[in-house]
Amino acid sequence: MADWLEALDRLAHERAKAGLTRQLRPRAAGDTVVDLAGNDYLGLSGHPRVIDAARQALETYGLGATGSRLVRGSTDAHAALEDSLAGWLGLDAALVFSSGYLANLAVVRALSAVCDLVVSDAYNHASLIDGCRISGLPVRVAPHNDPAAVAAVLDAHPGRAAVVTESVFSVDGDLAPLAELYRVTSSRGALLIVDDAHALGLLGDAGAGGVAAAGLAGAPDVIVTATLSKSLGGAGGVVAGPAALVRHLVDTGRSFIYDTAPPPAVVAGVLAAVEVARAADDRRAVLFRRGAHLAATLHRPVPAAGVLSVPAPGPEAAVAWAADCRDRGVAVGCFRPPSTPDGSSRLRLTVNAGVPEEAFARALQVILECAP
Ligand SMILES: Cc1ncc(COP(=O)(O)O)c(C=O)c1O
Q1: Domain that holds residue 110
Q2: Close Cβ partners of 80 (under 8 Å, ≥ 6 residues apart)
Q3: 205-248: per-residue pLDDT in tens?
Q4: Does residue 183 form part of some domain?
Q5: Domain count, the chain
Q6: 236 CA distance to ligand 1 centroid (A)?
């Protein structure tokens, strides 16, 4: 075997010994597994209005966008989705990307034009971390959810900084102190970038997200990013903020310019999902009731939105727990290092308002019975 393949084999062996091997499991069409692992919080991925809109756009435009929007032109669907997202989030303008990951890469990098430091929460998602890396700016990692620590970094820094956080954190589902963070950033001339991936559709009036819920929609120097793949059940990402920022991203955002645009059918489906999500207080009520019930049963804090994490004794125990649930027809997330910021292992449960009531109750029973 070639040297480099032997080296990869050795690394795979070390990961296996540490319980860190990842498995790709087949997912059959018509899968009847109860989903408490995905992020289809409002159950919109299969909503009839969403499917209809996507089907019509598929027939109109074909399967793919066939190129970057700068090269192939920008469809009505893309423009309509951007208007709709900006209006929903209460911001001037929005730009869609083909994933939330790429939106985060673009926005942090873009701010290197006007900032000279990034301050990043220790629990931030990999896409924000990678955005910080490719920005080329010095990065200071702030302790998780600690506005005083952020203030200390900013006070010691004479230039303009960008502070990057999630609103609802993806692993533990806890809420960032956004209003406090904004007091810190706005009083020190810093920008605040908030990844609203796990709050969009769930928090705030009409589900306008965590930034809106904190009273910061449209506040100066606040930029919002989100994925369109969670509560909106589709795919893609968005950066929303002042029109000048969107202009800057169109001109310089490498993951916008050099990436094929999200497929028009997906964009049209997501546009329909935004309309459904804005009016979905009933689905949000189901989600919060279920989250509170899960938390009470598993003796965990009530989740801020749809993510709840349950500690496991170690990576192997977490994997075995998730596998046993799976064997009994319940999909749950399993997070281990390096995907957990504090090196511990846990199940991650995501509440899905689209799961029938009886299936949800059964799933909870299965999780309890399979616990280590
Ligand atoms: C907080 C957060 N930001 C960004 C992303 C990336 O979004 P996408 O899956 O659309 O690339 C995710 C997960 O998917 C996430 O949890």
Answers
A1: 48-278
A2: 271
A3: 999 999 999 999 999 999 999 999 999 999 999 999 999 999 99
A4: yes
A5: 2
A6: 9
